[in-house]
């Protein structure tokens, strides 16, 4: 189950580190929790204009490293959401 609100501190002061779309919210929630756990930093997400915006506080390089390591899982989630043909062109964007 997806929580109703993202962490207000991360929402207001967090650094935008990743944007994605099309993946169901419960799957994004699981993936973002893995990023937070692996990086040891505060990471959360919210929807804006149909996109999942991932923000973080703390050591942003650790967060980016965790995202890179977990990208194969993101790519699989994207394939499940849009199909394998579209998944090759529908990638998330790291900032």
Provide an overview of this structure.
It is a single chain. The chain has 95 residues and is of the alpha+beta class. The chain has one domain: Ribosomal Protein S8, Chain: A, domain 1, CATH 3.30.1370. Helix content is 51%, strand content 23%. It is built from 4 helices and 4 strands; from the N terminus they run H-E-H-E-E-H-H-E. Strands 2-3-1-4 form a 4-stranded antiparallel sheet. Strand 2 and strand 3 (51-57) form a beta hairpin. Helix 2 (25-39) runs antiparallel to helix 3. The protein is globular, with a radius of gyration of 12 Å. It starts with 7 loop residues before the first helix and ends with a strand.
Secondary structure elements and pairings:
Elements: H1 8-13, E1 15-20, H2 25-39, E2 42-48, E3 51-57, H3 60-82, H4 84-87, E4 93-94
Antiparallel strand pairs: 1-3, 1-4, 2-3
Helix pairs in contact: 2-3
Distance between the termini: 27 Å
Amount of beta strand? 15-25%
Gyration radius, to the nearest Å?
12 Å
- Sheet with most strands: strand arrangement: 2-3-1-4
Q: Could you estimate the helical fraction of the residues in percent?
A: 40-55%
Shape: globular
Can you identify the CATH class?
Alpha Beta
Mean pLDDT: 92
- SSE sequence, one letter per element: HEHEEHHE
The CATH architecture can be named as 2-Layer Sandwich
Assign the CATH topology. Ribosomal Protein S8, Chain: A, domain 1
Number of strands: 4
Characterize the main sheet: 4 strands, antiparallel
Give the number of domains: 1
**Class from helix and strand fractions:** alpha+beta
Task: Give the helix tally.
Answer: 4
């Amino acid at each position: 189950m997806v929580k109703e609100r993202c962490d207000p501190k991360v929402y207001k002061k967090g650094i935008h580190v990743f944007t994605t779309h099309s993946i169901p919210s419960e799957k994004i929630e699981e993936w973002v929790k893995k990023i937070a756990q692996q990086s040891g930093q505060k990471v959360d997400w919210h929807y804006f204009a149909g996109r999942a915006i991932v923000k973080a506080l703390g050591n942003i390089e650790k967060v980016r490293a965790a995202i890179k390591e977990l990208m194969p899982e993101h790519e699989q989630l994207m394939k499940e959401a849009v199909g394998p043909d579209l998944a090759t062109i529908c990638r998330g964007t790291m900032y």
